[in-house]
Structures are given as structure tokens and as C-alpha cells.
């Protein structure tokens, strides 16, 4: 069984094959967060999609407490380990790898990536596999046609897609992403956290129609498959 828990904004906890991973754990300062950094006793990996504070979030704090490895674009991984004590990072770039038994593909995203006023690395998404199930976390991105390639190469079972607009795709663009990716299930994310991204996920669900099953999770809710 693979368990996907939405933590609010773009943060997820995913469990499968005995592994626990966090993606973009922006919890402190997140008005929609369903957990606190200290709630996690054991995490194997933390995946970071880009350097913005609402995605790196509490990665360092959680890694220092749990010993989890932070996986990120090489430049971001280097920046994090240079700036913080007691963490281990795994730097990579677009392409496939396996980290501690977790199969990952880091894929492009159309977005900026910066910290402290400086550009750091590139934005990315991740395709991960647990028990034969492929999960795509798009990170912050606009829709782009290369998403068709992700579907062709890997096959996407679950797509975690931003729908908030302003910084990412809105519902219309995310619906086109669903057409490109052809997933079985879609979980909308990166909406409702702050006023500029106050979108209604039901609008997205209506646009998607029968192209995929849209699973709308409130922060803290779980989807299992």
C-alpha cells in the first residue's frame, strides 16, 4: 500500500515499501499546515523542488532531527549543506537515480529558484516509484509539452499538480497538464494558502472531467492506493 498525506500548500508525506519521504515540507509559517516539524520522528528522504522558502521550508530542521537525507538540485544541495550543520544532502540533476532504495527521476519545472535574493539551481519536479506506482510531484511550474514525455517514458499513476495560478499553473493550465500526463489520479496542490492563490479545487475537478479522477484532499487527509 502507498499512502499519500497532504500537509498543505505543496507539502506531502509519502509512505511506501517501508520508506517515508517528505516533499517540500513548508510547515512553519504555513497557515494551512497539517503538521509541525517536530511531529516527524522518522523520515528517510526529504525532496526539495526548488529554493524558495515555501518549498525548502523546514527541510533542514527536520533533517537535523531525524537524520533524513535532503535530495535537491545539485546547486541547492550544496548551498544547504554549506549553510547548515548536521545534515546530509544528495545533489542531483535532471535524470533518474536511486537513493537508499527509492527510485527517483528529477524532471524539469518552469519556475524560478532563489534564496536570499540569489538564484540557486533550477526548479524541478520528481517522479518517484513505490510498489510499482509512479507518483509525479510537479513542484511549482507552468504547463509545458514535455510533460507528454514524462508519461511516455515512465507512466504516471498519480499527479500532484499546482492549480493556484499567479506563481504556477491555474486550473485551466493544470487541466492541459492532465491531458499530457494521462494519470489515473490527480491531487491538486499549491492553492488556498495565501490570497493570490485562492482557487477553488472544484473548478479544476470540473474542468478535468473524465480525463482522470481528481482527489481533493484537505490538509491532513490521506489518499491510499
TrEMBL record:
Domain called Metallo-beta-lactamase: residue spans: 8-190
SMART domains assigned: Lactamase_B (SM00849)
UniProt cross-references to NCBIfam families, sorted A to Z: PRK00685.1
Keywords of the record: Hydrolase
HAMAP family linked: UPF0173 (MF_00457)
Protein name (record): UPF0173 metal-dependent hydrolase XD54_1626
Protein family (similarity comment): Belongs to the UPF0173 family.
Signal sequence residues: none
Amino acid at each position: 500500500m502507498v499512502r499519500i498525506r497532504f500537509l498543505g500548500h505543496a507539502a506531502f508525506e509519502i509512505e511506501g515499501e517501508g520508506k517515508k519521504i517528505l516533499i517540500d515540507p513548508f510547515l512553519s509559517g504555513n497557515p494551512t499546515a497539517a503538521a509541525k516539524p517536530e511531529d516527524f520522528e522518522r523520515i528517510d528522504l526529504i525532496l526539495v523542488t526548488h529554493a524558495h522558502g515555501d518549498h525548502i521550508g523546514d527541510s533542514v530542521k527536520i533533517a537535523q532531527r531525524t537524520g533524513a537525507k535532503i535530495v535537491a538540485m545539485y546547486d541547492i544541495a550544496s548551498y544547504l549543506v554549506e549553510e547548515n550543520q548536521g545534515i546530509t544532502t544528495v545533489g542531483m540533476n535532471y535524470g533518474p537515480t536511486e537513493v537508499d532504495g527509492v527510485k527517483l527521476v528529477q524532471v524539469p519545472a518552469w519556475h524560478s529558484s532563489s534564496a536570499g535574493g540569489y538564484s540557486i539551481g533550477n526548479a524541478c519536479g520528481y517522479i518517484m516509484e513505490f510498489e510499482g506506482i509512479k507518483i509525479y510531484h510537479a513542484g511549482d511550474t507552468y504547463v509545458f509539452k514535455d510533460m507528454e514525455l514524462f508519461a511516455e517514458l515512465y507512466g504516471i499513476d498519480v499527479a500532484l499538480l499546482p492549480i493556484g495560478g499567479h506563481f504556477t499553473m491555474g486550473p485551466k493550465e493544470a487541466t492541459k497538464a492532465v491531458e499530457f500526463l494521462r494519470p489515473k489520479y490527480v491531487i491538486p496542490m499549491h492553492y488556498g494558502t495565501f490570497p493570490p492563490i485562492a482557487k477553488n479545487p472544484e473548478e479544476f475537478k470540473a474542468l478535468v472531467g473524465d480525463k482522470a479522477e481528481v482527489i481533493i484532499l484537505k490538509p491532513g487527509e490521506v489518499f491510499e492506493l
